[in-house]
Amino acid sequence: MSTPAKKTVTNARKKATAPPTYANYIQGAWVASKNGEVFANHNPADTRDIVGYFPHSTAEDIEAAVAAAAEAYPRWRLVPPPKRAEYIFRVGEILIRDKEAISHDMTREMGKVLKETRGDTQEAIDMAYFVAGEGRRLYGQTTTSELANKFAMTVRDAIGVCGLITPWNFPIAIPSWKILPAILCGNTVVIKPAEDTPLSVYRFVKAFEEAGLPPGVVNLVTGYGETAGAPLVTHPTIRLVSFTGSTQVGRIIATQAADKGKKCSLEMGGKNAIVVMDDANLELAVEGAVWGAFGTAGQRCTAASRLIVHKKVIKKFTQMLVERTQALRVGPGLDPASEVGPVVNQDQLERVLHYIDIGRTRDKAKLLCGGTRLTEGDLAHGYFIAPTVFGDVAPQSVIAQEEIFGPVTAIIPCQDFEDAITIANGVGYGLSAAIYTSDINRAFQAMRDLETGICYVNAPTIGAEVHLPFGGIKGTGNGHREGGVQAFEIFSEWKTLYVDFSGRLQKAQITD
Ligand code: UN1
């Protein structure tokens, strides 16, 4: 008699703790993918932990989401921007209320430590308040006309339905950089988040629902790049594609968007350098280098993966850096003692270990610390890599040229300031750079000569704030900036308006 009762309890408990199945959000309703298939979202700190199951969406789901966004567009376009901003402000309030829970979920699905996922959520909150404020600005120009009794001005116009594809390293911050300015400008959107971090965007979209955003303005479709991302990029109704991710995928998207005549904004790789001059505060430079290189386990487009150090201080700097790096506590992001979490998935683990191998063998760089996967105890169930420092790295070697996107950094010696700038600029990317120096003239020369979209003085390469433009040159981007009012350049078109109140035909440029 007791056995079946026990069984029932076990089953019930099992059911209560089974990972939840999530849905897409289309036209203001939560719906399964049309094929009914789901994929599992694993915790990278312990892959036995399944965070949830998410719709394995395909072109059919994209079709439905784009149709919903297209239907919502004509009405949303006519909602005054200050009113659109009120929804966005409410989203910010909801994110503040739920910050802890969102950040906790984010660490569980992405891996980075709780302090950093709180920062990620905070960045979306900052963005919500910043963009909401802009609802009462969205400034255009009024200007003169060359003709009498004629008025000239510019206004921002919406574009239409936007397809947004976001990465896993900033699971809510980067979606906020795209969704919020897009909808403030009067567009409607379909977002396809990275398959590693759909829960954070699910929670974000929940906030839009709770804020009362009209159905169809924000639509969420989860799935993989090839099956859900690709049909979004090529869908004829999509007027603009905004993508953050790998350079390889970004180039494909750029080609497809060009072919179909769509607007396209790309935020891709980086190979960011910190220059440490002989007059730098070394203590500060080491602290900045550790945070820049190993924050988010190095999985930032802005990560400091090169440390270009003046020959006079390189010995001391190296010793201090290695000591600090070895002391970093690597472990699950939910453990408050951890300072560096796992990398996000198996592919990323293999990619980073592969680069470490290249550094050791092909590049013949000196492995100073780290260099291995960590597998003691429960770490064996996750994707942990010991923070890795290479020394004596040649500027042209593979690990000093290619983006690794993991907890690996390369110390490159330099002779002097000019040499440092040449090395810093000698890569195919141009996102972020930093210089540590106490010489104000050097600082300004560096700001002038470093070929990047973002440049820091006496601070690491990471830590961008949402009200300033974010983005890079060369292989990093295609000329756009996210963040700041510059983001509105992506998500709106300028419309130029002339009003002739002369009551007669006036001809510009025609003199006779
Ligand atoms: C990224 O590097 O992938 O600047 C985004 C920072 C963050 C955003 C980084 N605010 O470090």
UniProtKB/TrEMBL annotation:
UniProt xrefs under InterPro entries: Ald_DH/histidinol_DH (IPR016161), Ald_DH_C (IPR016163), Ald_DH_CS_CYS (IPR016160), Ald_DH_CS_GLU (IPR029510), Ald_DH_N (IPR016162), Aldehyde_DH_dom (IPR015590), ALDH7A1-like (IPR044638)
Q: Which family does it belong to?
A: Belongs to the aldehyde dehydrogenase family.
- Assembly and oligomerization: Homotetramer.
Query: Does the UniProt entry include the keyword Oxidoreductase?
Result: yes
| Top-level enzyme category | oxidoreductase
* Annotated organism of origin: Chloracidobacterium sp. N
Any idea which residues are catalytic in this one?
A: E267
Q: Which UniProt keywords apply?
A: NAD, Oxidoreductase
Span of domain Aldehyde dehydrogenase: 30-496
UniProt-recorded name of the protein:
aldehyde dehydrogenase (NAD(+))
